[in-house]
Amino acid sequence: MGLLRRPKVLLAIGLVLGSLIISHTILRFPFPPIQIKPEALSKELISFGGFGSFNITNTMLSSWLGLAVIFALIYFATRKLGLVPRGLQNLVEAVLEWLYSIVVSVAGPGNARRFYPLVATIFIFVIINNWISLMPGYGTVGKMELADEVIEHIIEEKAEDIDLELEPLETELQLEERRVHQVEQQFEVFLDWSEEERAAAPSDHLGKQIFAELEGTDLHIYDKVGPFRVMPFRTSKQKMSALEYSEEYVTFDDGEIHFEQPEDKRIGLLIPYFRNANTGLNTTLALALVAMFFVEFWGVRTLGIFGYGSKFFNFSGFRNGLTTGFIDLFVGMLEAISEIARLISFTFRLFGNMFAGEILIFVMMFLIPLGLAVPFYGLELFVGFIQATIFAVLALMFATIAVTAHGHEKHTEEVGQPAANPDVDQKEGVVDTTP
Amino acid sequence: MGELGINLPGLVVQLFNVALILIILRLLLYKPILGLLDRRSIRIKESLEAAERAQTESARSEEQVKKILTEARQEGQSLINQAAEMGERVKDEARDKAKEEGEALITRARSEIGRERDEAVEKVRREFSSLAILAAEKVIDTELDEKRHRKLIDSVLEESLTSTEEEE
Fold first, then answer.
1. Are residues A220 and A308 in the same domain?
2. Contact assignment for B14 to A48 by CB distance below 8 Å
3. Which of A121, A158, A278, A351 to mutate to test the interface with B (most CBs of B within 10 A)?
4. Contact B29 A83 (CB under 8 A)
5. Which residues constitute the domain of residue A97?
6. From edge to edge, which strands make up the β-sheet containing A229-230?
7. pLDDT tens for residues B52-97?
């Protein structure tokens, strides 16, 4: 009880309580819809030659911002390069030297210069993207996707699942329209039903599926409309589900869906302009591909195509009998699989950690937006650093393993660093278990 | 894959981004900064070596200075000793010389005095003998054979002189 009488403790408790009260009355932060797929920013698909078409997504835009930040950093750090470092040069040098010492300690001085650019680039790219994603505006400033667009997207996505044959003289576009139309019809039918009929409908009924999806989609209500939207602090009335919206504003006319537009407000979703580039799988996959490409490249370059390839297709065991030969072949297969597993774990480790961090921040902002979410930003700073380090160091270790001669005892003495092999394997195991 | 947001064009864009940043960082950041670090480490090594060299040099020169100082001190001491010795010798010599000279002076003076006394005695004797002859002439009033008598007188005088000398 003595603890409660101390003014500092009382003040802290008061602050927490005040923050909780204000958080749950005036300053409610909406919980945004969470999706793995990066949100598209461009309305129209941009054609990309023979590769198909794509949207500019918010993770893509963020990665460009990240590049811009990195370029600005290099420019200001190397503008007045002096033997006696000053200002920003100090920081950049310290980071680069730290990375260099890691590379030298793992790969040895011989390979350090070769591996260093890749390792440092991965580290810098990942950490800059992670850290700028903690700046205000990430995930909260964006453009508005109106409710009718949201509902249309849901219907269009559902329509892709319908099996319809292409009729003669019909174009792809017309087929698409016919599918959408069918979903809309089913939805209309479902809306007209009574509660019992709805409940009795089979779960693969298109209308029921749409209904459920709309019920689970929260829309935000904005009073004013402009080019920039900030995620609104809300009281309970500033939110409605897409289903409530469609019951109020959607009409069907001859099987065609129509949306009425409310006059004084806009209802829809916020599409943030910026989202941590590492929460998009395209970015992490690209990083993993580049890393593994260089790893394999260095392996082939150092051991020769046959030297390196014998790791995966090892026929030398047949000299010692059929059984040994097959075992060696099987081990080679495992090696090949582990190579692919590395690529996948690279991709999803970074993605998973950063995506989880993003959700964590959203959850904390939703629960207690005022003040108490701040420690979690600190945590995310740490996680961002750790993930960058893990990605870079793992790439370094894989590269080191790839350029070290594998195979059996007799081969190991021929290459420069036989002792590095078990050592590195151990380290890899340790790092791998960290999230 | 599409549901996860992985698509080929998006992947190509990100691959391009990563490759671009790799190339640009390599050209604009790693090369100059690593070069700088190398240069700096070389320079630090050099200056450390130079410092070490300077230290050994200074230690050596200090030793040399010490040696020179000791030698100089010894030399000075020996010079002082020599000077003192020489001074002593000069003093002795001067004293001996002065003594000799004094003695020589005394001897000369003594011999001079002796000679002068002899001369005076001779002169007195001669005058005395002539006076005696003159007196005897006056007494006997004859001229004495000066040559014959002088011998006689002289022997008398000689006798008296020796007796007076003996008496003295």
1. no
2. no
3. A121
4. no
5. 77-137+277-433
6. A229-230, A141-146, A266-272, A218-222, A239-241
7. 999 999 999 999 999 999 999 999 999 999 999 999 999 999 999 9
